Amino acid sequence: MLRLLWLALLAAIAAPAAAAAPTHITPSLVAETTSPAAGSRVTLAFAMTPEPQWHGYWKNPGDAGLETRVAWKAPAGLRFGPLQYPVPQPLLIAGLMNYVYERDYAELVALDVPAGLPQGTKLPISVTLNWLACNPQTCVPETATLATELTVGNGAITSEDRGRFDRWRAELPKPLGAPAHFQVAGGRFRLGVPLPAGVDIEQPYFFPLTDGAIDYAAPQTVSRDGDRLVIETAAKAGGPQKIEGVLRIGPTLGLELTATPGAVAAGKPAAQTGGFWATLMAALGGAILGGLLLNVMPCVFPIISLKALSLARSGGTEQEARREALAYTAGVVLVCAGLGAALLILRASGVAAGWAFQLQDARVIAVLLLLMLAIGLNLAGLFELPVLAGGDRLTQGGGIVGAFWTGALAAFVATPCTGPFMAAALGVAILLPTAAAMAVFVGLGVGMALPFLLLGFVPALRRRLPKPGAWMTVLRHILAVPMFVTALGLAWILGQQAGVDGMTIGLGAGLLLAFGLWWSGRRQRALKSGAWWPTLVALLAAIGCVAILPLGGTPDTTAAATTPGHERFDEARLAALRKDGRPIFLYFTADWCLTCKVNEKAAIERSEVAKAFAGKHVVTMVGDWTRGDPAISRFLSAHGRSGVPFYLYYPAGGGEPRELPQVLTPGMLVNLA
Description:
Elements: H1 2-18, E1 25-31, E2 41-50, E3 56-62, E4 69-73, E5 79-80, E6 89-93, E7 96-101, E8 105-112, E9 122-134, E10 139-151, H2 159-170, E11 174-175, E12 180-185, E13 188-194, E14 205-208, E15 221-224, E16 228-234, E17 243-250, E18 253-261, E19 268-269, H3 275-294, H4 301-313, H5 318-348, H6 362-379, H7 399-414, H8 422-429, H9 434-457, H10 459-462, H11 471-478, H12 480-525, H13 533-547, E20 566-568, H14 571-579, E21 584-589, H15 594-604, H16 607-615, E22 619-624, H17 630-638, E23 646-650, E24 658-660, H18 666-672
Parallel strand pairs: 11-18, 12-18, 20-22, 21-22
Antiparallel strand pairs: 1-2, 2-8, 3-7, 4-9, 5-8, 6-7, 9-10, 12-13, 13-16, 14-17, 15-16, 15-19, 17-18, 21-23, 23-24
């Protein structure tokens, strides 16, 4: 305490001099929106960047240190909330425990803008910020005057600012929402926190906001007593009757709690996650298994024909089989890695993107429509166009180049669906460091290519394949049908995303391409030179059609309300229903996710399920991710997911949600109710 008083006195004396001195922690004042609406609440942030080896302090600094102090100057009527601190970390120096930040961090403030202000009103804001910056050898009180100007407007927030503030908010402790208790006996402090046994914890630590409750520098032990986490440490004499604080359950994850006196039994040693490497290995294993299972998921069916035909034609030498297997694997892995890298880049730039983000663009759907149509026409025998794969027919999978492009196409079409193991793995991947995340995406590709790798390197498996013959021509024509069905489905998705006009343009582009391919096929059969030029002209015209697609088409906004009791996803509505104790079935879907659509037709929209839900007053809430929705992306990320389908069931009475598997059955849903 004496050192704390000395530091406070030092800060008061040195503050004027520090104002002109360079700081060891660089602050900046950032607003989530510079055009808040009248009567709204806007979040401000003090983004703090410490130099290496330096740290700032939490609200309760521990045995030594100072919390951040602010003094606002702003127009009358603006109301500033208290500083909101992210989860800190403990730092023991010379026997003194400090609660600090040795990383970049942000302290948030809620600002209420008065109602009735006309648009265009200027709101100049300045603030004097005082904090203490320390390294293991010295402490320096620092100060800065920061300013920003807001203009009353429509409250628009850019995707970059939204993503940045979402990341900062994610590091704030979340309210526990349940009573905690503490017990002091024999000089020991024991805190019992209700926390389900299934919740993984990493580096658990209790940071008290209430002074005088525990010996800050004393070691803390963590144990389990069923669905309760128990933290034990040395107590201070004459402790308070109510204790507030934050329980850390992950490096930047914490629970804000209030504890009152009560009996707390000792628990068994708590199981903790194994840290970074255990998380990475689990995510990598899940990605490989998920990729392997992706080969039998319904969303992969459109490319099964390509793989089957390619494998059936592989009658070459052992060396050729291995080369084709490796080429196919390279195509799958490169596409998975490329999509993963694009996803990480988008998220780093503040865009709330998730897995299969590319299918939220109508132009990508249109390109896939053209591709599937061309493959179907090729399989049907309308044309042969070797130049598509540099001498190896793409859809026939002949040779190394053909195998590579078959794998690339398989991955691009198949990866939008997330099946068992894959959903959790990809959800973790987007939270890992870049190199580790890329390893998970590569693992997904390896898992998907594994069957083809085995066929290439295990001759006994290849010998079980049927021998080439005249039957393959018939099979090739039959396998054109799934390609045409897929193209038809893509046309429907295009209509959902870009409206009827967009679907018409897409079908028109397909008609142009089909005409060019037909013309090229006739020239090929006549052995004319330059047989491919009609396709080139038609392809350019089709691409021109894709480029003018109306991206602002009118989607089906009533889809979620066509079934009685269904509501569109809304976080505020979800919170209100949970507060009322209503049972809720919440699911996230997209028109381009075949697994989602199969689940809807085979389970969710069945009459027995509707009857069971109605009998128990279950509210069904639908989140449509077809065109991309930042609110849904943030919700999925908060639950460790990056794609659809995703299903949650909230039981009656406001209990914790239960996550359901990616493949649903009517009986499973009826049993929930």
